[in-house]
Amino acid sequence: MIDREQVVHVARLARLELSEEEIERMQSELSGILEHVDRIQSLDLSEVEPTSHVVALENVMRPDEPRPSLPRERALEPAPDPYEGAFRVPSPNA
Amino acid sequence: MSANLDGYEAVIGLEIHVQLRTRTKMFCGCELSFGDDPNVHTCPVCLAHPGSLPTLNEQAVRYGIQIGLALGCEIAPRSIFHRKNYFYPDNPKAYQISQYDIPLARNGRLGDVRIHRVHLEEDAAKLIHVGESGRIHGSDASLVDFNRGGTPLVEIVTEPDLRDAASAREWLQLLRSTIKAIGASDVNMEEGSLRCDANVSIRPAGSQELGTKTELKNMNSFRFLERGIEAELERQVALARAGEPIEQETLHFDPRTGTLTPLRSKEYAHDYRYFPEPDLVPLAPSKELLDEARASLPELPAQRLERYQSELGIPEAQAKLLAYDGELGDYFEAAVGAGTEASAKGLANWITGDLTARLREAAGEEGEVHAADSRVTPQAIAELVAMVEAKQVTAQAGREVLAKLVAEGGSPAEIVEREGLASISDSGELEGIVAAAIEADPDAAAKVREGNMKAIGPLVGYVMRETKGRADGGEVTRLIRKQLGLG
Question: Were both Cys, which of B216, B388, B405, B475 would link to B376 (CB 3.0–4.6 Å)?
Answer without folding.
Answer: B405
